[in-house]
Design goal:
With 176 residues, the protein is an alpha+beta fold. It contains seven helices and six strands, in the order ααβαββααβββαα. Helices cover 45% and strands 23% of the residues. The strands form two sheets. It has a three-stranded antiparallel β-sheet with strand order 1-3-2. A three-stranded antiparallel β-sheet has the order 4-5-6. Strand 5 and strand 6 form a beta hairpin. The longest helix has 19 residues. It is extended, with a radius of gyration of 22 Å. The two termini are 38 Å apart. 5% of the residues are buried.
Length: 176
């Protein structure tokens, strides 16, 4: 099958409906049973951004695997349009808070406190480049952390416009 043929195939109903679910107020979707022997289906759910959130041991006695119980995988996915970006920004805000004040953000549970202590060993805060009190720069291994998705986009556009390189060259330049 050519790339064009694959592009022209209609999307399965489950995939098309994800955006509709978000618009109806749902925040999470679960696809509750994929046999682990169905490699093609597992690859599709993985590629669509679903995470493996559970496993049911010995779930099915399939004709294709006689005398063997096959495990099933449960997939789940956040439906929010910017869910990943929010989590990323929030994570870096918490690290910045912990480094600046030396205390945990309100509502941090034991596991989150442990993650913050561990992460804090890799990050440091430096004064703003202009020397003002407009905030500190969060640094990871001598590179500034840019958690704002809009600012990330602007940086990528600037570098791409100056080099007219492809995605690999642009990404490599940003990482330098």
């Amino acid at each position: 099958m050519s790339a064009m043929e694959a592009f022209l195939l209609p999307k399965p109903p489950g995939i098309v409906e994800l955006d509709d679910l978000w618009e109806k107020g749902y925040t999470y979707s679960v696809f509750n049973l994929v046999y682990e022997t169905n490699v093609a289906s597992c690859r599709i759910w993985d590629a669509l951004g679903f995470k493996r959130v559970g496993r049911i041991k010995g779930c099915g006695n399939l004709k294709s695997y006689p005398d063997e119980l096959v495990d099933a995988i449960i997939y789940g996915r956040d439906l929010g349009p910017d869910g990943e970006d929010f989590v990323s920004e929030e994570r870096f805000d918490k690290i910045r808070f912990y480094l600046k004040h030396g205390k945990y953000p309100n509502g941090a549970d034991r596991a989150e406190k442990s993650r913050l202590r561990s992460a804090a060993t890799h990050y440091k805060l430096l004064p703003a480049e202009d020397g003002s009190d407009n905030g500190e720069r969060l640094m990871l291994k001598d590179k500034e952390v840019v958690s704002d998705p809009q600012r990330q986009y602007e940086i990528a556009r600037q570098i791409h416009a100056s080099q007219h390189g492809g995605i690999n060259k642009t990404t490599a330049t940003i990482a330098e």
